[in-house]
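Hello,

I think I submitted the iron/sulfur cluster job twice by accident. Can you confirm which output corresponds to this input? Input:
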Amino acid sequence: MNKLDSNLVANSFAQAGFDLVDSPIDADVVLVNTCSVRGHAEERVMSLLGHLKHIKKTRKELVVAVFGCMAQRCKDALLKHEVVNIVCGPLQIPELVNLVNNALDHTKKQKSVSENIRHKPLPQDLVGLDDFEQNNDSAENSLPAQAFVRVMHGCDNFCSYCVVPYVRGPEVSRPPEKIIEQIKKLADTGAKQITLLGQTVNSYSYNGASFADLLYDVSKIDGIEWIKFVTCYPKNFDERIFQAMVDLPKVCRYLHIPAQSGSDRILKAMNRHYTADEYLAILDRARQIVPDIAIAGDFIVGFCGETDEDFQKSAELIRKAQYKNSFIFKYSTRPGTRADEKLIDDVPMEIKKQRNIELLAVQEKVSEEWNKSFIGKTVKVLVEGVSKKSHLDGVDNEKLPQLIGRTAGDCIVVFDGAADLAGGFADVKITRASALTLFGQAAD
Ligand code: SF4
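Support: Only one job matched these inputs. Its output is below.
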């Protein structure tokens, strides 16, 4: 979601005549996109602002604009920061170019945020944001031939640890015709893979059209070959989404569905509205309908009141769920959330770190088994570009760089190939697998 926002903003500034420079030292304007989901992300923003302070000492005219979730959450406190000229919430990003142009003319600080973020916007209130998205989305980004399209804004779930409903507002689905029009435009400019984005895409609903309906419609668009979506919420899951994966070859058989904990007691404290068994039942149903589906999960360790016994239930859930991979995070309190106000962050950091390492090790074993099943098989990948890290298998093929790509099931694949394959599809025969990566050779 943040990558999409950064791309939209960068494109809107390019259209307004601004050029991108490599370093803040050379810039007249620095735009800082922010995330509030974890404390660490906000700490990094504060440290970046500290760094900009040094640049601004000698260049007082430098304009610094902070936008996104942290801008919405911290509003005036952020505006008071000595280097910040502009604070702009995630729903106000279409205004950024004007705000910056004003700041270049005057020195006055400016703020544009939602004053009542939980106030449900009317469809007409979102026209500006929809148009902004239409006009500035692009397949030209760091991942060639890939584009992201937001299908909905906000969230109404109020998981007790999560700040999203307070910074991105209520859940509002975008009109399907706008989404389709946007994707057609992206396909015309070279997008082959579209990732549909929402905090809970499976609850997409617009005038009776569901997310499954949207998948059938997007699938009709010429030029788009793979459709992925993130992320799903494990409640009231519409099984027609799984049926769409079977019916529509373009819909990738990949499901990212965060569990967050394997303990029913903790799930209740997290306000997640399902039990571990109900969650596993969704995964079973997914595999009954789509046997080769790849499933990824999310977990938080060290949530308020999590005992060793609760934690072991998360490890057990990972083993039972047989995820291809999981994203595992240490709990950090987010100001303004229910957990922050009503629960005690009582698991010491040392224990959080230990549990994080332990759960990653459990997942690594499961991932290794999953990845090993690909050895000897040929997989289709969308090539992202030259791999930043060099991997051992490249030594006997010095003429070709190592490329990195992803399968429809989101497995990372490293293989030797010509750099101009980036943005195209390639068939790769898998010869070796680790927990995180598949290695192979381009198939003849
Ligand atoms: S579903 Fe829960 S965790 Fe996800 S964005 Fe909404 S409130 Fe946050």
